[in-house]
Description:
Layout lengths: L1 H18 L6 H13 L2 H23 L5 H20 L2 H16 L2 H12 L1 H46 L2
Helix pairs in contact: 2-5, 2-6, 3-4, 6-7
Amino acid sequence: MRKFLTLLVLTCALAAPAAASAEPSAKALALTRRMVAAMHMQETMVPMLRNMMSQQADAIAASQKGLNDKQKVMLREAVRDSMEDVFDGGFMQQLMDRLTPAYAEVYSEEELQAMVDFYESPVGQSILRKMPQLGSIASKSVAELLPKIQAEMVAKMSKRMEAIKAAGN
């Protein structure tokens, strides 16, 4: 155990300098801001996040077995209202403030410039306009596949739980 901990500490110490990256350049940050603007990222992400959070609200309400239908509707509304408060409270700006340096750290200036060139082009804008359509198709596909996947997961987990319980005997 002592050797393992020593190895773990050494690995972390050696990996730390590699994990710590330099601050992104001003040019990289500027390119990232142009890319975010060209992609209409806030406008694109808000409906997607609202849809995901709405589905989450439905799942939360559905999981509350002790509530009647009226109470579940009230709970869904309360969760959705809370989510809207988050959006109205500047969530997207906070998210963009965090993502901008992340993009600038992950991608090189050359890569960022290529993305800016693409997303600012007519073809890039056309593709971005079509993304919500593709997102709807993808969401529908996931919704159709989810029950089967969940059933398979439950079956596999049941088998694993049986094996875990048997191992305890």
